[in-house]
Amino acid sequence: MSTALSTISRFIDRRQALVYPAPAVIVLFLIVVLPIGFNLYLAFTKWTVGLGQPRFIGVDNFIDLVSDERVWNGVKVMVYFSGLSLFLELVLGLLIALYFNREFRGSEIVQTIYIFPFAATPVAVALIWRIMLNPEIGVLNYLLRSIGLPGSLWVSSEQTVVLSLVLVDVWKWTPMITLIVLAGLKSLPPDPYEAARIDGASALQIFWHITLPLIRPVLIAALMLRSLDNLKEFDMIYTITQGGPGTSSETLYLYSYLVGFGFFKAGYGSALMVVVFLIVLVFNVVMNRLRLSR
Amino acid sequence: MKRKIACVALMALLCAVTVAGSASAQLNWKQFQGTEIRFLMNKHPFTTFIEPKIPDFEKLTGIKVVFEVFPEDQYRNKRTIELNAGGKLDGYMIMPGQDDLYYWKAGWLQPLDAFIADPKLTDAAWDPKDFFQSFTKASTVDGKQIGVVINAETSLLSYRKDLFDQFKLKVPTTMKELEETAKFFYGKEVDGKKMVGITLRGKGAAATSQWVDFLYSFGGSWTTPQGKSNLAGAGTVASFKFYGDLLKNYGPEGGTMLHWAESTSVFMEGKAAMIYDANVFKSLYENPKESKVAGRIGYAVIPAGPAGSVPHVSNWSLSINKNSAPERQKAAWLFIQWATNKPNALGALLAGVPAGRASAWDSPEYKSKDTQPDWTANTKKSFELGQPQWNPPVINVPEIRDITGQVIVDAIQGKDVEASAKKAAELMDKKMEL
What we know:
The complex is a heterodimer. Chain A is mostly helical. Chain A has helices at about 1-15, 15-20, 20-40, 60-65, 70-100, 105-115, 115-120, 120-130, 140-145, 160-185, 190-200, 205-230, 235-240, 250-260, 265-290, and strands at about 45-50, 50-55. Chain A has two domains: about 15-60, no CATH class; about 60-290, Orthogonal Bundle (MetI-like fold). In chain A, strands 1-2 form a two-stranded antiparallel sheet. Chain A is globular and about 70 Å long. The mean pLDDT of chain A is about 90. Chain B has two domains: about 35-155 and about 315-375, 3-Layer(aba) Sandwich (D-Maltodextrin-Binding Protein, domain 2), CATH 3.40.190; about 170-310 and about 395-430, D-Maltodextrin-Binding Protein, domain 2 (3-Layer(aba) Sandwich), CATH 3.40.190. Residues about 10-25 of chain B have low confidence and may be disordered. Chain B is α/β, with parallel strands linked by helices. In chain B, β7 (about 190) and β8 (about 195) form a beta hairpin. Chain B is built from 20 helices and twelve strands. The chains are: A mainly alpha, B alpha/beta. The interface between A and B is medium-sized, with 26 and 34 residues.
């Protein structure tokens, strides 16, 4: 008995590098690698959940999706929504971080209140926005009209739906960018600033020639973190518009959900997911290059 | 004291009736004692009604019933995924018009005919002839009955009776009158509120279940007799145009985002003179806690179009999973039988769930408690006129509804309806699975 135990213990001692991470690796394999692998397999099959078994059809799904108008619409909405919201979040996040990066009375309280939106539960927040954005009974139109402005259709019009969603996304996620950038700003070395001030550089020059280049890797890191979620934004858009009116706010990610879980076409839905995956991957590889390059 | 005696007497009477009922039949309710069955249920008024009564069934049969209830959107997903995964699931709620072809082809629906015909499994008092035939037909695939109706629906035109009286208007009986009446009210100030003429669902796929009544009334159809898409057919296009124009010109702002919840709340806020939606929403409209217009509503069947007045009928049914063990299937059948017996159908109807049994509607209890005989009369009329094919006759119903919904959205936005319908028809022909 004791020899068996000591054999095991000797085995563990000799192979610590294998044994200790093993449980985590196994779990990760089961919940990450396996589903992604299965998804990849399904992407090359035709399968409606329940109707027979997945049937291998090669790249037919990918040929189909090139001629599927909804795919191109989804990419367009995705680029429009993500491009605009990421840009605004980055710019506003940076400006607000610069503003917070000073000593002023009550700065802790202001900063704490400021991060509320991103600390709140996404679906709960989205439900509230959905009511606020309602053109008939929403508070936004009530406020606009009470100061004499015309109301907007917000998410009920094809023209304004993506802009309204960007508004919600910017409101919710700018604080996250601010927090990351603020941490970066606080860790900047003081010497270049002192030198610049002695040389008589203006505040704008200091920002443009010192702060921005120094903070660039942090900004890109923040953008990468945010883009991972933003490019596959689901809960907020699904809760507020479900992709409507029509398909005017249907991102590729929402469309793939509809195909997979609305129409139960698991094969085609998986192919769409692979495309989303590739878009996110390519975007992040490019960003990473930018971050590391000088 | 007197009241107490009356109560006891009533209970004794009820017991006697129950005992007499079960004693006279050959059915042995205890035959599956100890079995546990699991049902997936939609969060629906019928579920709310029957759930507290389950202990009665468990006492009667010794079968343990596990109920799992989910809101509709999640419910549909969960049900399909669970059935596909082959877990221990014995029965579930289904809208046959929505899912029967798909579920039948997938092999998840147990035909009930053998159970119904077997006197050892079915109480004579259950009386299948008592169900409205249109709903039994709607729960039948390839000549096999796959479900028992628990909620019988149709749609009605609901209107503000008080305003119609005030302005001396008559209830529209043709589509032309419907449009004129909507126009009359649109923009009118009533009680300091700017009214809209009518509110309808406009949110793509969700709107098709109400638009379909206009489809049939305008002489359109889902498919041609050859089995091709008829979305671009003349009657169909006319119905898209009429429905879209009605909502665009005389409906609330943002029509393309109106699901039933939004549409009914506009009506209940007192901002719309009329609404066309499911008859079951009467329980919302007439609830003074939720609705500002309770007690001031009249009901009518859909106004006649060129092809007459053709509403749809739809229903929720209880079905049995074909892959469940035979013993548990039979236990599940006892449960379904009990849940749809005459007293429960009547109880559900009294609780506001439209029953699929004629006896419930004709019972003196219901008639004496009916506060909206107008609604009852028009609901029954609509049941008789009703067309059970409220969804496209295909396996991939959600996908084809989605395609159809896009034309409705385009129509509401004032786009070229012919072009949109033509595009949708081509897409439907490509995607349709029969």
